[in-house]
Structure formats: structure tokens, C-alpha cells
């Protein structure tokens, strides 16, 4: 559930995120090479205050780290992303679909801006989020992206009491 809201942002958040990240122009080698990258890592999401059944404004902080990347060009070895934004939500509406963009900072010092669409499904106590999109700017521009994030699902006891305050799970990203 938690990962869904990591993608929902206002225009102001997107402007703040982009302002804090330099996304250099893509060189011809990046735009036309048969580069492919596959990364594995973790995503952590924190909610303040905790998410309960009652809908309310919640500050969300999401951080992702790809500690292991394999790049067909042999250049990218890791990457990361981070976002902070506010949503109005409760435990019952964290599985909504979304459209947004994510900026991944690479170990090479450059970044990729990925325009994405995502869907989430609750499966056996976990939320599986599938995110697809296209790299719109930076490294791997024009390439297709697929990210999967698996986080623990909020439990009824948490939603009834102090709230669901965060989760950490695994994530993979493939750019082809």
C-alpha cells in the first residue's frame, strides 16, 4: 500500500525535486546506445502521522537505493531516489493507481527522469506495485522502464490504533 503514494506528487513537489537534482543533457552515446540496466535494491517509506482508517493529511518520505546495478555499457553500478510530499489518505485508499515521475540518480553522477504509471495489488499480506514508463530526460532517454516494489501491507490493528508508520521492501528496476 505504502508505495502507491510514493509516486503521487503535486506540481510543486515535482518542481522542488527537479530543482534539487541536476539532470544533464543526454549525450548522443546515451540516446542511441543499446544500453540496458537492471538494478536491485530496497525502498523505505515513512508516514507522519501514521496512516489510519480516517483520511487525513500525511507527510510521506520515500527513499530507494539500488545497491546493485548491471549496465550493458559497464558504467552504472548503483542508483538512488528520494521524495517527500503530503497526501490525504487512509488505510482503505492506498492502492489507487497513479501517474508521476521519478528521478533516479546514478553512480555515474548523472540522472534519469522517468515518466511513470503504476498499479498496486494486495497479495498475501504484501503490496506489489508495478511501475512502467519511459525515460524522458537524462541517462537512458527514450528507453522503457519497469520497476517493481514489494512492501508489507498495513494491518488492521495498525490502522485502528496509532497508524501504519512505514515499511521497507525490495525493488527492482529494468531499463531497456
Task: Give structural notes.
The structure is a single chain. Helices cover 13% and strands 56% of the residues. It has 176 residues and is mainly β. An 8-stranded antiparallel beta barrel has the order 1-2-3-4-5-6-7-8. The model is unreliable at 1-33 (pLDDT under 50). Strand 2 and strand 3 (79-89) form a beta hairpin.
Task: List its traits.
disordered N terminus; 176 residues; 13% helix; mainly beta
Biggest β-sheet, characterized? 8 strands, antiparallel, barrel
Strands side by side in the biggest sheet = 1-2-3-4-5-6-7-8
Strand content: over 45%
Helix content: 10-25%
Structural class: mainly beta
Mean pLDDT: 80
Number of helices: 4
General shape: elongated
Report the uncertain regions. 1-33
Spatial extent as radius of gyration: 16 Å
- Strand tally is 8
In short:
This protein is mainly beta. It has helices at residues 2-5, 11-19, 28-32, 156-160, and strands at residues 37-51, 56-71, 79-89, 98-106, 111-123, 126-138, 144-152, 164-175.
Element layout with pairings:
Blueprint: H1 2-5, H2 11-19, H3 28-32, E1 37-51, E2 56-71, E3 79-89, E4 98-106, E5 111-123, E6 126-138, E7 144-152, H4 156-160, E8 164-175
Antiparallel strand pairs: 1-2, 1-8, 2-3, 3-4, 4-5, 5-6, 6-7, 7-8
Amino acid at each position: 500500500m505504502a508505495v502507491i503514494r510514493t509516486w503521487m506528487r503535486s506540481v510543486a513537489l515535482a518542481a522542488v525535486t527537479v530543482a534539487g537534482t541536476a539532470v544533464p543533457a543526454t549525450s548522443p552515446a546515451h540516446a542511441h546506445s543499446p544500453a540496458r540496466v537492471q538494478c536491485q535494491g530496497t525502498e523505505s517509506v515513512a508516514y507522519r502521522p501514521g496512516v489510519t482508517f480516517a483520511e487525513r493529511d500525511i507527510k510521506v518520505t520515500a527513499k530507494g537505493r539500488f545497491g546493485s546495478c548491471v549496465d550493458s555499457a559497464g558504467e552504472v553500478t548503483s542508483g538512488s531516489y528520494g521524495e517527500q510530499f503530503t497526501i490525504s489518505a487512509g488505510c482503505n485508499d492506498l492502492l489507487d493507481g497513479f501517474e508521476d515521475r521519478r528521478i533516479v540518480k546514478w553512480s555515474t553522477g548523472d540522472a534519469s527522469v522517468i515518466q511513470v504509471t503504476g498499479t498496486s495489488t494486495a497479495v498475501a499480506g504484501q503490496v506489489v506495485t508495478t511501475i512502467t514508463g519511459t525515460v524522458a530526460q537524462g541517462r537512458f532517454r527514450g528507453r522503457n522502464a519497469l520497476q517493481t516494489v514489494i512492501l508489507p501491507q498495513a494491518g488492521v490493528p495498525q490502522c485502528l490504533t496509532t497508524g501504519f508508520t512505514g515499511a521497507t521492501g525490495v525493488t527492482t528496476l529494468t531499463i531497456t
